[in-house]
């Protein structure tokens, strides 16, 4: 279909506005459901699961690490795991450095029999 460029731009702009309106309506409905629920955690998970089921597109996840871009989901998962592990270790070392001796009893010990 051949449309003038002006019409194409108008349609694209309208689609963008429509998507934003739909997203805002979904957000407001989710907020309303969560705020009015007795069990907020359960309501939140219902909304999350509903969104997961309704998402039909496969997103191309990318992770930038310096000059390198990673697209393999397995590698991204491993890099994220390493990052979270290192952050935990850094926080623990800061706590051990800054806390009085009485709080050191809560220090996490490594166990060679598990991955933790």
Commentary on this structure:
With 116 residues, this protein is mainly alpha-helical. The protein has two domains: 1-56; 58-110. Helices cover 63% and strands 5% of the residues. It has three helices and two strands; from the N terminus they run H-H-E-E-H. It has helices at 5-36, 40-54, 73-98, and strands at residues 63-65, 68-70. A two-stranded antiparallel sheet has the order 1-2. Strand 1 and strand 2 (68-70) form a beta hairpin. Helix 1 (5-36) runs antiparallel to helix 2. The longest helix is centred in the N-terminal third of the chain and has 32 residues, at 5-36. The protein is flat. The mean pLDDT is 78.
Q: Could you provide a short overview of the structure?
A:
The protein has 116 residues and is mainly α.
């Amino acid at each position: 279909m051949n449309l003038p460029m002006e019409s194409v731009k108008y349609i694209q702009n309208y689609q963008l506005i429509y998507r934003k309106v739909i997203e805002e309506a979904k957000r407001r409905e989710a907020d309303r459901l969560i705020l009015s629920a007795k069990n907020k955690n359960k309501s939140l998970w219902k909304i999350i699961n509903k969104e997961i089921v309704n998402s039909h597109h496969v997103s191309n996840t990318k992770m930038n690490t310096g000059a390198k871009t990673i697209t393999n989901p397995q590698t991204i998962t491993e890099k994220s795991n390493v990052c979270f592990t290192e952050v935990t270790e850094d926080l623990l070392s800061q706590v051990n450095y800054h806390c009085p001796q009485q709080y050191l009893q809560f220090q996490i010990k490594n166990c060679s029999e598990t991955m933790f």
